[in-house]
Known about the structure:
Elements: H1 2-11, H2 18-25, H3 29-35, H4 39-50, H5 53-63, H6 68-81, H7 83-98, H8 100-110, H9 117-138, H10 144-147, H11 153-168
Amino acid sequence: MRSAGDLFAELGYRDTSLRAVAAAAGCDPALIGHYFASKEALYDAVVAETVRPAEVFREAIGRRDPDAAEWLLRHAVADWNDPVQCRRILGVLRSALDLPAARERFRQSLVPEGVAETDGIRLALVSSLLVGVMTSRHMGLLPAELADEADPAELVNALAPAVASFLAADPSGSVAPCAPVHRSRC
């Protein structure tokens, strides 16, 4: 799994072969076939281990308290600050951008099974925000005080109101006016 995660992160799904995974792991390729029916099954296992928001999202949605957004963000930022985990997440994102099947697997990993449709919409909004911020942070597009890996408090504080609003959003479409002067949707 570790070798597969590293290769998927480095090469993407398309350019990672089971032979290359076996060589990196120092094992016979048949051993991979014993545990994983296909490259897709191995990739699914790597995605499930790498992109683990389902249980965190489920708890954040279930909490329904003001601290849920900060709690969720602390979990996300901890993964972003782990160099190995961050590299693997970015590899999963690269594969998801490259292949429709990988994109669908990534999407499924973000929204846990059994959540209500409205909660699924909330989680999709939070996921979109987090993927964008993580990518921007990786690319150096965030101001230094928000990109500080040693002290992620500024980033958590900056994002918490947006995440909290997504967690509490009414995805049915009824939106409060943005301001008295401007009546379009927020």
